[in-house]
């Protein structure tokens, strides 16, 4: 790489030289050009270079000038930069007359933080839509402020040879941009144009899709992108005709169809074997999103943020999309275009969009990881897609779309992936180098180093070989990028989790088991930078307890080193064990039998269950065969959903609980009785709640009112139990965690009750409350135990 030498405007008679070591997200975000321009402005000489630890600046000038320069470095950094460490030392004066951008250097220790993938900036959108720009209609347009990062990085320092763009030699025009510190494409590692960069290939399913022929346009023509514009024009025609197109995107393949075409949406749902789970949508812009959903200002900000996540929002009563997009759901999951290719899927560059919204769901089968390589696309997706839109920029690290929901004006991450990973979670204390393997559902893992915790992107449900391979390849990649070699491994106590089995097979590492719900609360504490003890409320479907039963409705007294179980939902014998997760009628049977004994009430739900199956299951419960004890809040939701005849079998995790939330009438304020038994630990007894629900059902109370009263009951139970614990322990801080708190109705009710009782309540925001966040909790618990030992 050539050095970039610019003379400083002036020299002080008495100069000193300072070395400034900057760590954090300072590579791939325009940091060196920023330093270069700042040096010119202040009349400072010296140099700046990338290293494997971050950025090093050597600045020479008068002391007062250097003070101002250093202050501006910290306070005026580029918007995408995140400075975590900033160290200044005096070094010997060299007498430089110029300020230079030097070639990158590699050091023994690597700690430079890799930026996440960034959505297309406004300037690149203007290039894309300007007919006189040489990147008009080029679907891989990017600059220093946007484009692929994490998905293409193979190593650090973050330079082009260490990315999958190394396969493309820049043309003369692109090279000039790349080497010009005044150009916004200065050291934009994915920099390319139609004549030298990635290209597209459109192939019908069943043809030789594993080896598409990519034909870039000729360089240096006025409009060299016509082949790309033509390909995308064809793709839009295919979408209008109702085809399903598998599109290779930023972090993997997406399955795309016209969201307004009911037949296309149903075809995609049938082929993907996705019976009910909502599809994600991509809207052409904010105006289109507003035609789909009721947007708050926080929703708009989330949609337009550089991460461009999927945002879950209340849907309008009759949105202009197929009912098959989100059957039976009051919300829609919407994102905006985050690559030039996405913008071109909606219409000709610079012209009005042809679609309000496109279905854009992950290109995978069942719960397998998203497909990322051309050669695996047709074998895995050939029975779903009619056509394949390939490109030849390799994806080194597959990464799915992130999912968020706004609450009280803040963004809450539900699935942490593209746009967020591998951004660090800042910790209060330095951590040893630890690997935390997470749980089974919505798996992520966590690596710690110094004051940073790095959660992986969403891996998915760790229940099959393909997901385990994804876990292992992501772990190997992040260990390399972050230069982390763990000395200990933390894991969930459940012996059958693949993540736990993986941890136990690692040789030479200290192994630390962390109880599932303790990890939930520790994760919330770490994110909110809390120390000391808190009251932790952890509600979810399944977590292996220290007593061998399945926990899930837990009130803990917790800090990072240990926890005490101070209260929990009264145990119920769950019929069928794991089968009850898929068949909520089994949970209903269990709770009804626990409440009424052998004389079960006559309810409509029994008509949905084959009588022989019901008889066998009841007999098994009596004999305690294939049954487990559980305090699960998730199964309690399932039971009530089935009792109300809303959902007896599910096709995705949490579906019965979602139905119950969707059915609830929010204006209802009444609740049902419950009891808190003064045992050790305390037990929340909801048998009177079940009796009241059955009574309401039998007298014809609308299910929407019953569902609302059930949510209100749980909110009251949370506050009442926390008040009792506070009276005993004197604690006033409450952390809410676990997948059940994704339920906005329950969360609102619990928060209101707790705040009215004077509690200080802490929630998740940048880390998922579901099992996608427990790896962080495992890591900080393990670190505290190691520190104390």
Q: Quick recap of the structure?
A:
With 789 residues, the chain is of the alpha/beta class. The strands form five sheets. Strands 7-14-8-9-13-10-12-11-15-16 form a ten-stranded mixed beta sheet, with helices on both faces.
The amount of beta strand, in percent, is 15-25%
Low-confidence stretches: 217-225
End-to-end distance: 48 Å
Number of separate strands: 29
Helical region count?
22
Could you say which structural class the secondary elements and strand pairing correspond to? alpha/beta
Largest sheet: 10 strands, mixed
In round numbers, the mean pLDDT is 92
Spatial strand order of the main sheet: 7-14-8-9-13-10-12-11-15-16
What coarse outline follows from CA principal-axis ratios? globular
- Helix content, binned percent: 25-40%
State Rg: 28 Å
Topology summary:
Blueprint: E1 4-7, E2 16-25, H1 31-42, E3 45-50, E4 55-61, H2 63-75, E5 82-91, E6 98-101, H3 122-129, H4 172-178, E7 200-204, H5 226-240, E8 245-248, E9 253-258, H6 262-271, E10 280-283, H7 286-292, H8 297-304, E11 310-314, E12 331-335, H9 340-346, E13 357-362, H10 374-381, E14 387-391, E15 403-407, E16 410-415, E17 425-436, E18 446-455, H11 465-482, E19 488-492, H12 498-504, E20 510-514, H13 516-527, E21 534-544, E22 550-558, E23 563-569, E24 572-575, H14 579-582, H15 584-596, H16 611-623, E25 627-630, H17 633-643, H18 655-663, E26 675-677, E27 682-685, H19 687-698, H20 703-729, E28 733-737, H21 744-756, E29 760-762, H22 774-788
Parallel strand pairs: 3-6, 8-14, 10-12, 11-15, 17-19, 19-20, 21-28, 23-27, 28-29
Antiparallel strand pairs: 1-6, 2-4, 2-5, 3-4, 7-14, 8-9, 9-13, 10-13, 11-12, 15-16, 17-18, 21-22, 22-23, 24-25, 26-27
Helix pairs in contact: 1-2, 5-9, 13-22, 15-17, 15-19, 17-18, 19-20, 20-21
């Amino acid at each position: 790489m050539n050095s970039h030498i610019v003379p400083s405007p002036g020299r002080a008679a008495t100069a000193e030289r300072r070395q400034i070591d900057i760590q954090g997200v300072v590579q791939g975000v325009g940091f060196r050009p920023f330093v270069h321009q700042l040096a010119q402005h202040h009349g400072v000489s010296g140099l700046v270079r990338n290293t494997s630890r971050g950025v090093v600046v050597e600045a020479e000038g008068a002391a007062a000038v250097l003070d101002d320069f250093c202050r501006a470095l910290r306070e005026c950094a580029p918007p995408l930069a995140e400075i975590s460490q900033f160290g200044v030392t005096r070094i010997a004066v060299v007498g430089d007359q110029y300020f230079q951008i030097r070639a990158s250097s590699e050091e023994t220790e690597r700690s430079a933080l890799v930026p996440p993938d960034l959505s297309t900036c406004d300037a690149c959108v203007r290039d894309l839509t300007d007919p006189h720009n040489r990147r008009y209609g080029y679907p891989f347009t990017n600059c220093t402020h946007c484009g692929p990062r994490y998905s293409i990085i193979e190593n650090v320092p973050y330079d082009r040879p260490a990315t999958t763009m190394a396969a493309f030699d820049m043309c003369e025009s692109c090279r000039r941009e790349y080497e010009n510190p005044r150009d916004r494409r200065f050291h934009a590692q994915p920099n390319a144009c139609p004549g030298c960069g990635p290209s597209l290939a459109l192939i019908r399913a069943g043809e030789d899709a594993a080896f598409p022929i990519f034909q870039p346009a000729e360089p240096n023509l006025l409009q060299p992108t016509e082949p790309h514009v033509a390909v995308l024009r064809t793709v839009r025609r295919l979408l209008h005709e109702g085809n399903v197109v598998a599109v290779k995107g930023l972090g993997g393949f997406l399955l795309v169809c016209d969201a307004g075409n009911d037949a296309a949406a149903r075809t995609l749902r049938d082929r993907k074997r996705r019976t009910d789970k909502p599809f994600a949508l991509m809207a052409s812009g904010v105006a289109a999103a507003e035609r789909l959903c009721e947007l708050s200002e926080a929703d708009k900000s989330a949609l337009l943020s550089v991460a461009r996540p999927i945002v879950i929002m209340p849907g309008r009563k009759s949105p202009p999309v197929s009912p098959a997009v989100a059957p039976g759901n009051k919300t829609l999951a919407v994102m905006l275009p985050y690559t030039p290719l996405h913008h071109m899927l909606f219409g000709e560059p610079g012209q009005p969009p042809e679609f309000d919204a496109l279905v854009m769901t992950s290109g995978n089968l069942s719960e397998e990881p998203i497909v990322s390589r051309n050669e695996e696309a047709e074998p895995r997706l050939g029975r779903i897609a009619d056509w394949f839109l390939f490109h030849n920029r390799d994806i080194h690290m597959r990464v799915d779309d992130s999912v968020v929901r706004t609450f009280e004006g803040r963004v809450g991450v539900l699935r942490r992936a593209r746009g967020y990973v591998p951004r660090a979670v800042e910790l209060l204390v330095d951590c040893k180098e630890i690997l935390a393997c997470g749980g089974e559902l919505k798996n992520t893992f966590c690596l710690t180093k110094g004051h940073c915790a790095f959660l992986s992107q969403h891996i998915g449900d760790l229940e099959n070989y393909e997901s385990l391979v994804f876990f292992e390849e992501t772990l190997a990649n992040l260990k390399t990028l972050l230069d982390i070699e763990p000395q200990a491994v933390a894991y969930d106590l459940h012996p059958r989790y693949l993540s736990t089995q993986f941890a136990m097979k690692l040789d030479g590492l200290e192994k630390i088991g962390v109880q599932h719900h303790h990890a939930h609360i520790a994760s919330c504490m770490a994110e909110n930078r809390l120390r000391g003890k808190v009251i932790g409320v952890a509600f979810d479907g399944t977590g292996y307890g220290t007593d061998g039963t399945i926990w899930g409705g837990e009130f803990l007294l917790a800090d990072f080193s240990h926890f005490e179980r101070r209260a929990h939902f009264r145990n119920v014998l769950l019929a069928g064990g794991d089968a009850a997760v898929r068949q909520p009628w089994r949970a209903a049977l269990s709770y009804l039998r626990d409440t009424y004994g052998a004389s079960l009430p006559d309810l409509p739900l029994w008509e949905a269950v084959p009588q022989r199956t019901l008889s066998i299951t009841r007999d098994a419960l009596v004999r305690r065969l294939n049954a487990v004890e559980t305090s699960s809040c998730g199964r309690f939701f399932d039971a009530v959903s089935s009792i109300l005849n809303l959902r007896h079998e599910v096709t995705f995790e949490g579906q019965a609980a979602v139905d119950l939330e969707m059915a609830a009438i929010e204006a209802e304020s009444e609740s049902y009785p419950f009891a808190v038994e003064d045992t050790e630990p305390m037990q929340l007894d909801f048998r009177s709640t079940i009796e009241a629900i059955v009574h309401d059902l039998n007298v014809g109370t609308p299910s929407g009112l019953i569902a609302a009263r059930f949510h209100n009951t749980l909110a009251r139970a949370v506050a009442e139990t926390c008040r009792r614990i506070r009276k005993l322990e004197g604690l006033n801080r409450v952390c809410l965690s676990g997948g059940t708190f994704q339920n906005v109705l329950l969360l609102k009710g619990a928060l209101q009750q707790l705040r009215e009782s004077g509690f200080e309540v802490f929630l998740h925001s940048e880390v998922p409350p579901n099992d996608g966040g427990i790896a962080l909790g495992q890591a900080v618990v393990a670190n505290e135990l190691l520190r104390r030992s």
